[in-house]
């Protein structure tokens, strides 16, 4: 998820009952998320924009 080109988050963000052990489906679950800032956030923004077809192929 790119916020504004300055901050971005990536990783697994599983928000559902089965991941919170409210309904025991997967049992214990560990997930990791990463916050990116600065140039790394900008790079992720460009990558996501390209993948979504919002940038020309030769950016």
Automatic annotation (TrEMBL):
<dbReference type="GO" id="GO:0003824">
    <property type="term" value="F:catalytic activity"/>
</dbReference>
<dbReference type="InterPro" id="IPR001736">
    <property type="entry name" value="PLipase_D/transphosphatidylase"/>
</dbReference>
<feature type="domain" description="PLD phosphodiesterase">
    <location>
        <begin position="1"/>
        <end position="19"/>
    </location>
</feature>
<protein>
    <submittedName>
        <fullName>Cardiolipin synthetase</fullName>
    </submittedName>
</protein>
